[in-house]
């Protein structure tokens, strides 16, 4: 049997020895689209930090397989006001994603520059390459950050509220880009989002947290489960119909 990209066994994370989320047992395979859902404070962002090795487990372990390394994982975090006002050109921001591949030596190869150009073109922002990042709209900034993350990643993308603060049309376009990465590039997606209907349209699997693992399984099984009813507010038929 082929090993999983990531397998979590009896895992818990927290801060200063205080557990935030625990009792985690799930696996992620190549090409999966995992939606991590739950109310505020349920441990979603803490889990993402743990999967990225930004914090260490309080207990249990994260086992990486199929040759996956952290340098193969892109990360699109929640945007802060500081990030929105970052004084650099679009090209500089996107290129900085290649530092993940250059051992943080601030020198870019021709391959790095070609990769950055290709990702900007894919995200529809190539014409903005010389523009100041801080002068862009929220949707354009997210496309820049996604292009940057793609310069760092080639197998897995972890995203924390990627559409936060965006209007519905721009959010729809962003989720379409994420869907394309998953379906056409077979990139594994792990996403935290309050746009539950949007992510469930595309997710292959769902992990529902409330300080612990309430549910892990296929999207279809989640929609039929008791755990989906509150978050979906009784509109499961919308998710099914739109998929």
Protein architecture, described:
This protein has 243 residues and is of the alpha/beta class. It has a domain at 1-68 and 194-243: P-loop containing nucleotide triphosphate hydrolases (Rossmann fold, 3-Layer(aba) Sandwich). The chain is 37% helix and 23% strand. It contains ten helices and nine strands. The strands form two sheets. Strands 5-6-7-3-8-9 form a six-stranded mixed β-sheet, with helices on both faces. α4 (110-122) packs across α5 (138-152) and α7 packs across α10 (236-242). The longest helix is centred in the C-terminal third of the chain and has 18 residues, at 168-185.
Defining key terms:
243 residues, alpha/beta, Rossmann fold, six-stranded mixed β-sheet, three-stranded antiparallel β-sheet, 10 helices, 37% helix, 23% strand, disordered C terminus
* End-to-end separation: 30 Å
Strand content: 15-25%
Major β-sheet annotation: 6 strands, mixed
* Fourth-level CATH superfamily of the domain at 1-68 and 194-243: P-loop containing nucleotide triphosphate hydrolases
State the name of the first-level CATH class of the domain at 1-68 and 194-243. Alpha Beta
**Beta strands, count:** 9
Name the helicity range: 25-40%
Shape: globular
Structural class: alpha/beta
Order of helices and strands: EEEHEEHHHHEHEHEEHHH
Mean pLDDT: 88
Q: Rounded to an integer, what's the Rg over CA atoms?
A: 18 Å
Named CATH architecture of the domain at 1-68 and 194-243? 3-Layer(aba) Sandwich
The order of strands across the largest sheet is 5-6-7-3-8-9
- Please report the number of helical segments: 10
Low-confidence stretches: 234-243
**Which fold name fills CATH's third level, the topology of the domain at 1-68 and 194-243?**
Rossmann fold
């Amino acid at each position: 049997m082929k090993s999983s990209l990531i397998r979590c066994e009896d895992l818990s994370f927290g801060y200063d020895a205080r557990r935030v989320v625990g009792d985690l047992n799930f696996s992620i395979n190549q090409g999966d689209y995992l939606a991590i859902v739950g109310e505020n404070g349920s441990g979603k962002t803490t889990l993402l930090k743990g999967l990225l090795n930004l914090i260490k487990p309080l207990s249990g372990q994260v086992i990486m397989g199929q040759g996956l390394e952290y340098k193969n994982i892109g990360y699109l975090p929640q945007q802060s006001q500081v990030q929105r006002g970052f004084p650099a050109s679009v090209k500089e921001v996107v290129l900085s994603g290649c530092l993940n591949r250059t051992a943080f030596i601030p020198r870019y190869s021709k391959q790095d520059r070609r990769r950055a150009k290709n990702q900007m073109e894919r995200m529809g922002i190539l014409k903005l390459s010389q523009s100041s990042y801080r002068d862009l709209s929220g949707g354009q900034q997210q496309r820049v950050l996604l292009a940057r993350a793609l310069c760092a990643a080639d197998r897995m993308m972890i995203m924390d509220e990627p559409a936060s603060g965006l209007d519905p049309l721009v959010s729809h376009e962003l989720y379409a880009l994420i869907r394309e990465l998953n379906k056409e590039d077979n990139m594994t997606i792990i996403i935290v989002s309050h746009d539950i209907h949007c992510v469930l349209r595309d997710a292959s699997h769902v992990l529902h947290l409330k300080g612990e693992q309430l549910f892990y399984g296929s999207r279809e099984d989640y929609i039929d489960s008791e755990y989906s009813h509150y978050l979906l507010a009784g509109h499961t038929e919308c998710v099914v119909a739109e998929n």
